[in-house]
Amino acid sequence: MKEHFGDDALGRKKAFYFLPWHLDFLSRYRPLPSTRFAEAALGTPLMQTRMQPLGEHDPPLDRLLGHTDPAVHEMIANCLWEADSDGDACRSLGALAESAQLAAIACANGGGDRQRAEDVELSNIPRGAAATPSGAGKHKYKRRPPKPQRSEEEIAELRAVRAAKRLATGAPPHVSGKR
């Protein structure tokens, strides 16, 4: 990873911007057998289908990668950043998956991901004023201020100044109308 992002503070900053977001998105991924789910995948993307949260019977590494807490994603990113090899990363993530620190985060969340899996819908819901029924889908665009209304005298004065500039620079005279 350090080869891609760079082995310095800027590389770490880039990696820690990139990894937690992707880990959050990919926490929905479940390895599903194609014999059972191939037909369902043709109708809707399975990644956007609600699945049962992973339980105690699932492998610890799968439970770790399926965790939805942002603090856990930071911890995974840190393990990946500190690892020197693929094997070291797997050992580090395995130790994290079985650590008391992860169990404490799951307990602090009131049962972990079970509640969040039921509450969070996988959709793009607008926030703020646009989320209200009266303002749904309405965009408030900033309008350009209107041009100042000039009198005939001001227009004639501006044209004279521009004509003087054209004469001084040697530019061709202004032609009104279609060209």
The succession of helices and strands, N to C, reads HHHHHHHHH
| SSE class | mainly alpha
Largest sheet: none
Strand content: under 5%
Overall 3D shape: elongated
Q: How much helix, percentage-wise, in residues?
A: 40-55%
What is the arithmetic mean of pLDDT? 79
- Helix count, DSSP H or I runs of 4 or more residues: 9
- Provide the low-confidence segments as ranges: none
> What is the radius of gyration computed over CA atoms, rounded to a whole number of angstroms?
30 Å
- How far the N terminus sits from the C terminus, by CA atoms, comes to 60 Å
How many β-strand runs? 0
Q: What attributes characterize this protein structure?
A:
179 residues, mainly alpha
Detailed description of the structure:
Residues 124-153 are annotated as: Disordered. Residues 137-147 have a biased composition (Basic residues). With 179 residues, this protein is mainly alpha-helical. The protein has a domain at 2-123. Helix content is 54%, strand content 0%. It has nine helices and no strands. Helix 2 (9-26) packs across helix 5. The radius of gyration is 30 Å and the shape is elongated. The relative contact order is 0.08. The model has no long low-confidence stretch (mean pLDDT 79).
